Amino acid sequence: MSDIDLLDLPLVLLSNRGPVSFDRDASGRTVNRGAGGLVSALSGLAEHLDDAVWVCGAATPEDAAVAGENDGGAILVQTQPTPHVVEGQPDGPSIRVRLVVTDPDAYADFYSVWSNPILWFIQHGLYGRSLAPVLTRAEHDAFENGYAAVNRAYADAVADEVRSRGGKALVLLQDYHFYLVAEHVREQCPDVVLTHFVHIPWPGPDEWRVLPGNIRERLLRGLLGSDVVGFHTRRYARNFVLCAGELLGLPINLDDLTVTVNDRVVSARYYPISVDPAALDATLASEDVAAHMAMLRYVFLDEDRQLVLRVDRTDPSKNVVRGFLAFGTLLDQHPELVGRVSFLALLQPSRTDVPEYADYIALIGAVVAEINAKHTKEGRQPIDLRMVEDFALAVAAYSICDVLMVNAIADGMNLVAKEVAVVNRRGGVLALSEMAGSHEELGEFAVTLHPFDVQQMADALYTALTMPMEERHRRLAAAAEQVRTHDVRRWLNDQLADLRHLAGFS
Ligand code: ADQ
């Protein structure tokens, strides 16, 4: 990560899941590195700074034990080549980590009642539309004793780290778990320079009116403790500014996307997150992926057959059921495709303790069974549903699919589309929801899906599957170029450049 723009101030990061996590096996304590593009991008930054600390939740019992042994203070973890806790001087890349332990009941209210599903559902247009009772006394209490209390505990940990660095630091907060943190940190450390990045969509004021006035105001005022509130797209940033104007009555400027709070000006900015193309290229070249690729070709691509792919968590916002209904409609209306096109779905079970998610998995299974019963031909089932989390398998499938389906009803960015753009070698067509943030960058190279219109999605799949090869390759090359020139380092550097400016360094 030597091309990350380094900073001249100490850095404090906050996210719910951190860069490392501890476990225990027969040989004793083990240290695991967190997975995913976000963690590796921010880890790269933290590893290169002399004075950085990453505040995160203690996710495992062993994390809590480590935190207890260190009185809740930060520990230094060497991340490469073998992750381990450092007592003296590290001889490789290392990150200072502060694991925050909170009361388990409070954490459950924070995470499983408020962060998911209430905030996630509101921000993906899924909340309060059924006739289920919302908000009950229990949910009101869970806000105070869970979301607000846990946010306060994390804010105190961040403020403590800022104070121990002389009271002036750059603070990067991540996501919907921590909307109240910025305001608390600023109260304690007025000289911080603070960005809160929201990884999921930000809807307009009316969608937020499903929450009572006092709660939505606290969430907004909490975020407005930041100097910059970052989003993936201009649309989300604009919605945020509109919320501050309409729901809090604050002065706003919709041209430069700013909100004035007392004497401070808070900017809403957009930084589209992306992938690490070099890391993806390396994964694609691995033996593991090659073995999966050979298997997938054998199963799905003999005799000029075609493959439609989706790779998602089983989250209702990803709209998996309607995606299968569209594929079923395609086969109903184009019987010549039966036996010639397969749909591989790699679905990672997600948040199964939340009833809506468990119900959703059952519904996915039922819809797939129905379509397979109707359209199985010569022993070939049209849909191959695999409930797995296997990134090497996903990358192998990305590289050889003819069409990638992303039909989310709302999605902050959607990195799957960007991953496919980088690793596909078959002229794969992106069939991409207009509601995914990535549609702003990749829509012109994709076939657009309207996620609430099953017939339109079926027609769009047909367009993608019958597109001339030359055009497929032309579009894919353009999408790959866009992603390679707008990678995750750029996402980070653009934020750092704004922070440096705010801190008076440029
Ligand atoms: P997610 O909702 O998790 O992220 P996404 O951006 O698509 O959605 O990232 C998912 C990641 O998990 C991808 O790297 C994908 O390859 C991987 N993945 C998904 N299913 C998998 C499976 N079955 N097996 C293996 N790997 C799988 C949230 C927001 C997004 C936003 C990101 C980053 O909801 O909109 O893009 O954060 O900000």
UniProtKB/TrEMBL annotation:
A single GO molecular function, which one? alpha,alpha-trehalose-phosphate synthase (UDP-forming) activity
Known InterPro entries for this protein?
Answer: Glyco_trans_20
Gene3D superfamilies in alphabetical order:
Glycogen Phosphorylase B (3.40.50.2000)
Q: Could you tell me the Gene Ontology terms of the biological process aspect for this record?
A: trehalose biosynthetic process
* Domain of life (superkingdom): Bacteria
Which Pfam families is this protein grouped with? Answer: Glyco_transf_20
Return the similarity comment.
Answer: Belongs to the glycosyltransferase 20 family.
Its protein name is Trehalose-6-phosphate synthase
User: What's the source species for this entry?
Assistant: Parafrankia soli
